[in-house]
Amino acid sequence: MMKTIIEPFRAKMVESICFTTRAERKQLLCRAKYNLFQLRAQDVIIDLLTDSGMAAMSSQQWSALMRGDESYAGCSSFYRLGEIVTNTFGFPEVIPVHQGRAGEKILFAALVKPGDVVPSNTHFDTTRANLEACGAEAIDLPTPEAKDSNSSYPFKGNIDLGKLERLITTRGAKAMPFAMLTITNNSAGGQPASLANIQGMSKLLRKHEIPFYIDAARFAENAWLIKQRAPDCSGLSVSEIVKKIFIGANGCLVSAKKDCLANIGGFIAIRDRSLARRLKDALVLTEGFPTYGGLSGRDLEVIAVGIEESINEDYLHYRQASSMYVAEKLMVHGIPFVAPPGLHALYIDAAKFLPHIPALQFPGQALACELYVEAGIRSCEVGSVMFGKYNRETGKETTAQKELVRLALPRRVYSQSHYDYVAEALVNVYRRREKIVGMKIVSQPQQLRHFNAFFEPIADS
Ligand SMILES: *Cc1c(COP(=O)(O)O)cnc(C)c1O
Fold first, then answer.
1. Is the dihedral of CA 447, 450, 452, 455 positive or negative?
2. Given phi > 0 = left and psi -120 to 50 = alpha, else beta, which region is 56?
3. Same domain, 190 and 332
4. Beta bridge partner(s), residue 181
5. Are 205 and 285 part of one and the same domain?
6. Residue 367 contacts by C-beta under 8 Å, 6 or more apart in sequence?
7. Can you name the residues that pair with 439 across neighbouring β-strands?
8. What is the pLDDT of residues 255-301, one digit of tens each?
9. Do the beta carbons of residue 178 and residue 213 sit within 8 Å?
10. Does 460 have pLDDT greater than 90?
């Protein structure tokens, strides 16, 4: 048997990368006010900002696109997508939406009222924002192992079932319109929830008659990691594991921009027909008629093919090999990252990488900027810039629990030599880490500041 794992695809169309010099990148970064979201994509050599909507489509998806039925009502593309979603996830009712957060808004508006409590392992940021916009309290109950970046616990995406049960007892099942589980748990480093945890959650919720919805943007990667990490599931196919994940849930919300290999789109899939009717009535107001939900017929086709490709085990194996490949290179050089690596991203521990930079000087932002100057690589700070808060009245900053830099791995986009390049750049930056200085924020908006804040390096004293 061959030991070398290769990308299970070859290129048919290519997109050129524009190269820049180090001097040019210093200027571009200064002009972008040291915020990588403000760069033009053409000034980036390797773009690891996110894995969302950046997948390379397959020839199957491009050809399905031509089949897209653009009829306003009852297009055949909708029925094709519906059939594939129902076969894959097991839910009879499928409601397309233009992207994940639109599905959140529609479902939550139907089910949530002010004062409600909605627990999850960890809510995704738009999920939390949409729940809070409905007046609910979004509560995170991750398993305690998720907090320890050195722990190699295989299921750091689990929800803490003991805490969930206590929350149900103290707040009462009536205050919980439903509970959620994010798979994989993005905020915990793309870590999976185990099948046992998902089944345990389903059983507990059923006992209290609380509906269960899964936030399933990375369902295929979660299923693959279950197959790899749970000895009793190694004999099951990914497709079988996917069915077992959803069988005890009332429905799921899916952003098709992640595992479904689409550049835009999403859907709600549920069992309850009368709820589906209510959601479809609401959908018409903001998204569109229920057989297109704000998407074109060709988008529906692309998502349908993408779902089938997302659970292909050769593809998932390659995906894991890519993230392990980068992780092993970092390990050899002692570069600190969150273990064990997930599939959609690697998270560098910037607090350990740059111990001389305090959290209030944003070590993650400093590292992300340095990586751009070094090699034109765009990554994303996930630390006190993203999760810290500035109090305008007191002028005080609160910091995040962790200072991370996320290297997201867009699906089917980069090859092994690109990742060699990324690892070399990280090693170069690591070697001169003592010389890297912290950053300060010179202006920031009230909310979601990581997108629009302006920074400056703190001058060497
Ligand atoms: C991306 C994502 C969403 C939101 O989806 P969009 O398509 O970006 O609107 C919700 N939940 C999870 C877990 C996600 O990863």
1. positive
2. beta
3. no
4. 214
5. yes
6. 348, 350, 353, 354, 379, 381, 405, 429, 436
7. 457
8. 999 999 999 999 999 999 999 999 999 999 999 999 999 999 999 99
9. yes
10. no
151 pLDDT tier (thresholds 50, 70, 90): confident
Q: 63 is written with which tokens?
A: 């050809």
Mutate to test the pocket of ligand 1, among 255, 260, 261, 263 (most ligand atoms within 8 A of CB): 255
User: Which of 49, 50, 52, 406 to probe ligand 1 with, by most ligand atoms within 8 A of CB?
Assistant: 52
Other residues' Cβ atoms within 10 Å of the Cβ of residue 170: 9
Range of the domain at 394: 22-51+312-460
**Residue range 363-368: average pLDDT?**
98
**C-alpha–C-alpha distance, residues 461 and 448, integer Å:** 31
Distance 329 CA to ligand 1 centre (A): 29
Confidence (pTM): 0.95
Q: What integer pLDDT is reported at residue 461 of this predicted model?
A: 53
Nearby residues of 98 by Cβ (< 8 Å), 6 or more positions away: 264, 265, 266, 287, 293, 294, 295
Same domain as 306, residue 192: yes
Amino acid (1-letter code) at residue 277:
R
The helix (run of H) or strand (run of E) holding residue 183 is none
Question: Tell me, what DSSP letter sits at residue 136?
Answer: P
311 Cα to the center of ligand 1, angstroms = 19
Distance of CA 96 to the CA centre of its chain: 19
Q: How many domains does the chain have?
A: 2
pLDDT digits (tens, 9 = 90+) for 393-421: 898 999 998 999 999 999 999 999 999 99
Q: What is the reported pLDDT for 288?
A: 96
Say whether both 175 and 293 belong to one domain: yes
The pLDDT of residue 148 is 82
pLDDT classification of 19: cutoffs 50, 70, 90: very high
- State in Å: Cα 115 to ligand 1 middle: 24
